[in-house]
Amino acid sequence: MATYDVTASPIKINDVTKIMGKISLFRKINILSFLRRLNSTVDSTETEKFSLSLKEWWDDRKGPAAALHSMNTVRVPLIKEALIGTRDEAGELGPHPLKGFSILDVGCGGGILCESLGELGSDVLGIDPNPVAINVATTHLMLTKNSSDIKDRVKYQSCSLEDLIKADSEPIDTDSSSEDFDCVVASEVLEHVADVDMFVHQLSQMAKPGGSVVFSTINRTIPSLFLAKMAAEYIFNILPRGTHDWNKFVTPEELDEIVKRHSMSTVSVIGLGYNPLTNVWNYQSDTNMNYFLHAIKQ
Ligand SMILES: C[S@@+](CC[C@H](N)C(=O)[O-])C[C@H]1O[C@@H](n2cnc3c(N)ncnc32)[C@H](O)[C@@H]1O
User: Fold this and answer.
1) What does the pLDDT look like over 11-35, one tens digit per residue?
2) Terminal-residue alpha carbon distance, the chain
3) Is the pLDDT assigned to residue 194 strictly greater than 60?
4) Ligand 1 atom 4: the closest Cα is on which residue?
5) pTM for the full predicted model
6) Can you give the pLDDT at residue 167?
């Protein structure tokens, strides 16, 4: 039987170079992209699902993102509440209650949430690994907003969270730190990432101590299998078929455990109900389908 001599000299760089030299270019590319995926939260088969056109992202009535548009009616007040302690649904705090707050919207897609948060006065950075979505978000902002104020406050960047953290930690700009934002948002993204634990860790790194990290996502339950997955994709055609993999859904209990592991504590979990016939969302105590979780960075 062959044995491995642990005292033998370790493999040298030259040996690796020789081995790599014998592998075809095609296999090398596969190996390198596999190694990169191991260290990334991005699953490109998931992000490519969101290469939608400007019209598809921004058709708020019949487009594949219509439910995300109407979701702003519930998620925007919840983000306000996370930042200023009130949902301010009657708009008593004036048109810009989020003035002075910085928000990072991770997996911002075509900018549906970023624009609404920018309208409320905050500085928003929307990032997404899908350059098609970022192009749509930038184009929509430029084409539809007259005021240069919001165009200056809402910015987009096509990159992953790990790219942003790496760029942030490079010592070019001494004023920047990895703990930059008052609020970090991941809305309808968790169910698409390659590694939830790594992703949540990175979200936490981007929040200020005492800042908020907010999630909206889909629970992994039997009702969500039939309604959020099967009915939404195959009966009501609200979403393109194959948008979701039920196995990737995360329960609120699991998310609570994960946020605790990454220096955060959950302050609230709120169920979100959706009526596919009217495209209307509401708050509810039941978290069996969609839910919103607000955590604070310690
Ligand atoms: C359902 S869309 C949500 C868009 C936006 N957050 C909204 O709610 O309007 C999911 C988005 O997450 C992005 N995404 C998927 N995996 C990601 C990852 N690992 N990191 C950041 N964004 C990701 C996709 O490219 C896509 O634009």
Assistant:
1) 454 555 565 566 666 565 555 555 5
2) 55
3) yes
4) 109
5) 0.86
6) 86
Kindly report the average pLDDT of the chain as a whole number: 89
Task: Using the mean position of ligand 1's atoms as its centre, give its distance from the Cα of residue 264 in Å.
Answer: 22
Count of CB atoms situated within 10 Å of the CB of 220: 18
Known binding residue 188? Answer is: yes
- Tell me if 191 is assigned to a ligand binding site: yes
Give pLDDT, residue 237. 85
**At residue 259, does pLDDT exceed 70?**
yes
State the architecture of 46-297 in CATH terms. Answer: 3-Layer(aba) Sandwich (3.40)
3 CA to middle of ligand 1, Å?
A: 48
CB-defined site of ligand 1, < 6 Å: 41-42, 46-47, 50, 68, 106-109, 112-113, 128-130, 133, 160-161, 187-189, 192-193, 199
Tell whether residue 192 is among the known ligand binding residues: yes
pLDDT digits (tens, 9 = 90+) for 107-155: 999 999 999 999 999 999 999 999 999 999 999 999 999 888 999 999 9
* Pick from 37-41, 120-124, 240-244: least confident: 37-41
Nearest CA to ligand 1 atom 10: 189
DSSP string, the chain: -----TTSPPPPHHHHHHHHHHS-HHHHHHHHHHHHHHT-S--HHHHGGG---HHHHH-TTTSTTHHHHHHHHHHHHHHHHHHHS---TT-TT-S-TTTT-EEEEET-TTSHHHHHHHHTT-EEEEE-S-HHHHHHHHHHHHHH---HHHHHHEEEE---HHHHHHHHHSTT-TT--S--EEEEEEES-GGG-S-HHHHHHHHHHHEEEEEEEEEEEE--SHHHIIIIIIIIIIIS--S-TTS--GGG---HHHHHHHHHHTTEEEEEEEEEEEETTTTEEEEES--SSEEEEEEEE-
